[in-house]
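Researcher: I've been going back and forth with a colleague about how Helix-turn-helix domain-containing protein might be arranged in three dimensions. Neither of us has a model we trust, so I'd like an independent prediction. The organism is Microlunatus ginsengisoli, in case that matters for your notes. Sequence below.
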Amino acid sequence: MSFAGETAARAAVFAALGEPVRLAVVDRLVAGDLSPGGLAGELGIGSNLLAHHLQVLEQAGVIDRVRSEGDRRRSYLRLREDNPAVWVAALSGRLPAGVDLSASRVVFVCTANSARSQLAAARWGQLSPIPAASAGTHPGPAVHPRAVSAAHRHGLRLDDASPTGLAGLLGGEELVIVVCDSAHEELDPALPRLHWSIPDPVRVDTDAAFDATIVDIDHRLHRLATLTRS
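Model: Here is an independent structure prediction for Helix-turn-helix domain-containing protein. You can compare it with whatever you and your colleague have in mind.
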């Protein structure tokens, strides 16, 4: 992209965020993804008005809308991590009710606990002194071999990891981060948590898919680590 094009793109982002509701949308998506319905509830505005603001943000390259891999009728909103101007604008985030960044442990959850949650916990261990664990709502028999090899490529270790279930792991003082749409939609809505709509690399089953998963996780974890220090 040319200098003029980059400047125009940045201007579009800041123009889109020059409205309180749209800036509030970005604030609430800094730490995690939300459905349009959940976002409307947090902001206390009607769905028609929210739809207008989301359209402006999508056109400006501020947010993406992704289809749930679980319930295909649902969608989730996430910030455009590839747009530096978005992160410059997102100076503060609003967390969902009950989510505490001062928790004594972070628990990453997906369905099988064979890839995404394992990789997230391993990477978090490199970024933060806060302990991390991972679990699955329906743990599989083993960590996926491509997850292990991708971990090695990115300086992580999963050689001794094995899937574990979520039952009995939560004591009420953890920061729960669900990195899987299916697990998020299955868990009790009353459980305070962050949701990251990260595509399942096992469905694609290529090295590139697992590498992309680690990059996605890494971007989100760096942002979360920044929030925990603020």
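Researcher: What would you highlight for our discussion?
Model: I'd start with this: The radius of gyration is 18 Å. After that, consider the following. The chain has two domains: 3-89, 106-229.
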